[in-house]
Structures are given as structure tokens and as C-alpha cells.
Amino acid sequence: VKSITGTLQIEGNTFTEEKVTSVINGTKVLGTVREMAEVEGAIEAYDFLEKYKYTNEKDLLLAHKKMMGQLLNNAGTYRHTNVGVGGKEGVTHVAPPPNMVQTLMGELFEWLNSSEEHLLIVSCVFHYEFEFIHPFSDGNGRLGRLWQSVILTEYKSIFSQIPIESVVRDNQVKYYDALEASGSVGESTPFVEFILEVIYKTLQKLQEENQKVGEKVGIKVGINLSENQKEIIAYMLENPKVSAKKLSELVGISSRKIEENIKKLKEEKIIERIGANKGGSWKVLEEKK
């Protein structure tokens, strides 16, 4: 929800996290036809996040079709017209001509498939090069941010749960300044440095929020929880259907340690399992029984 809200608000959409949540839950909300189409498209595109193969160009086209299908007749195909990117002082970047887009994107994905750089760096460089090429008639910013998340999720699955887009939104001016700075010097370093800082801030913020949630639960039940237990509880509250395997990836400890912590939390009546192991969900109790 935070990722979808953040990436759309960067583009001027006024929907809040609450309204996006309502759309996901099927509740009617007030909004323009375009804003609703943007939200529904983003939901569909992000819902597929962990299924995209980051090195597959066809998957990128599929993501664009999902994201922009209600807004563009040519969604899922590269542009056939010239485009420019506007900034504070007018047009700040004229994208390559349309007859070069297919070749440039092919070369970018060849690099993506062969690069031996760390995926953190790869994700940032791809994001910048993608925005430089600007391969679609619309939706390039949204797709660039989405595909960076796809690459990061390949590196560590925890990134599928991390709303980097919302931190970019909170630093929107710096985001565009970094793009312009990289364009001015002719290479991606300023943008890479900016995005790496955004990733670091996002991870810090997530850790702080999880610790606060865990501490509140610990206070309510009158128990001092370990740092790992606080994070486990926070992730269960965020996604009651989260699996032990996913918790292992998110918290960064072994599956055996996750099971040990879950057992302790169950014994203390802090959590309980609703339903079967497969298909069930977690319930975090407000106070000890």
C-alpha cells in the first residue's frame, strides 16, 4: 500500500494510503476516473511483484501493460513518438528518438543479464538508464521504480515488503535533482548515490517502526520481548498470513530460530495460529489470556 501510494503521489495522484487500502478491499471511494485507473493499474502491477523475472524484457512490458492498461491504448509496447522530460526550467531531458528505443532497451537487458555488479548497484543503474531512455509514452517513472523493486526483491525477498517508493516521494525534489545531475555529468553516479541513501533510510525506518510495534505489544502483555520477537510480531501484524519461511528472510535469522521464537510467543499466549499451518493466519493477542 505504501509503495503504490508513494509512486502514484510522485506523479500527482491524490489518493492516500487509506483510500488505496479501500480500493484493494473493494470498498467504493471518491476520486477521478484517471486517479482510480492509476490506482487499480498499480495494484495489479505490484500484485505481480514477486513473479516478474528481473532479467526478462517481456516481463517489463507485461508490467507496463498491467500498470497502464486502463490509461494507454499502447500499454505494454515501446513508444513511437518523441518525448521529453520537464523540470523546473522547462525541458530538462530529451529522450532518445523512438527508432532507437528497441535497440537501447535490448542492450540494457543484455547488460542486466550479464552484469556481475552487486544487485543493489545494478538496481540503481538500471533505474537511471531506464529513465534516460524513457521507453514508454507514459508511466516511465512508475515502471522505473517498480523494476528497481523487482531487482531488489531478487537480491533479498524482504524488499518486496519495503516501501522504497514512499521514501522517494518524501524526497521527491532530491530524486529529480539526482536524475538531472546524472544527466548533466553523463553518468549515473549522483543518482546511484541518492537511491542507495534512500534504501538505507527506508531500512532504518522499517526497523524503527517494527521495534516500536513489538515494544507496544510487549508492554501490553507484560513481557520483555527480544528484538527478533518484536520484529516477528510486527510482520505478523502487517501480514497475518506470513509464513515461517518468509519470516526467516524478513528477520534475517534461520527457520529453526523463527520456529523457536514462535513457540515461545505461543507459550506466552502472545500469538496464536488460526486455521491450518497451510492457509491459516496469525493472530497477535492484545493482552495475555
What's the arrangement of secondary structure elements?
Elements: H1 2-10, H2 17-24, H3 33-47, H4 57-68, E1 84-87, E2 90-94, H5 98-114, H6 119-133, H7 140-155, H8 164-170, H9 172-185, H10 189-221, H11 227-238, H12 244-251, H13 255-267, E3 271-274, E4 281-284
Antiparallel strand pairs: 1-2, 3-4
Helix pairs in contact: 1-8, 3-4, 5-6, 6-7, 6-10, 9-10, 10-11, 12-13
Give a quick precis of the structure.
By secondary structure, the chain is mainly α.
Task: Walk me through this protein's architecture.
With 289 residues, the chain is mainly α. Helices cover 62% and strands 6% of the residues. It contains 13 helices and four strands. The strands form two sheets. It has a two-stranded antiparallel sheet with strand order 1-2. Strands 3-4 form a two-stranded antiparallel ribbon. A hairpin with a 2-residue loop joins strand 1 and strand 2. The radius of gyration is 21 Å and the shape is globular.
What attributes does this structure have?
ATP-binding, 2 domains, Fido-like_dom_sf, Arc Repressor Mutant, subunit A, mainly alpha, Fido_containing, Fic-like fold, two-stranded antiparallel ribbon, 289 residues, Fido, 62% helix
